[in-house]
Amino acid sequence: MGDRFADQNVISRLLDESRTWAIVGLTDNPDRTAHEQARLLQQRGKRIVPVNPSAAEVLGAPGYATLAEVPVPVDVVGVYRRQEAAGAVVDEAVAAGAKAVWLPLGVIDEAAAQRALDAGLDVVMNRCPAVEWALRH
């Protein structure tokens, strides 16, 4: 894989210019990585859209059961699901018209990442938004 899906220009653009992040797998459990990352993104001024089957509200934001149900344009889809589920989420992100997908540390699906690139999305894979912010400042 190398750094093919870790282009620093793409990472910077997504962290600096994106406004709305749909976090797939986000729950109200503060001990989960998705919750920590969503809170960080909110602190950095991003709008968070929780996406989980229960459609629960998380961090004050209304949740949706699927990406297709999200009623606002999504800049970045954070894929906080097990690696074996990542491909399906990436395909949903493409179908929903997202501009980018971000697969966090340990979530690697090169075929899905390539499908997203082929569909015109930016892709970051096996990177952590918190770490990337820390490295830049």
TrEMBL record:
<dbReference type="InterPro" id="IPR003781">
    <property type="entry name" value="CoA-bd"/>
</dbReference>
<protein>
    <submittedName>
        <fullName>CoA-binding protein</fullName>
    </submittedName>
</protein>
<dbReference type="InterPro" id="IPR036291">
    <property type="entry name" value="NAD(P)-bd_dom_sf"/>
</dbReference>
<feature type="domain" description="CoA-binding">
    <location>
        <begin position="14"/>
        <end position="107"/>
    </location>
</feature>
<dbReference type="Pfam" id="PF13380">
    <property type="entry name" value="CoA_binding_2"/>
</dbReference>
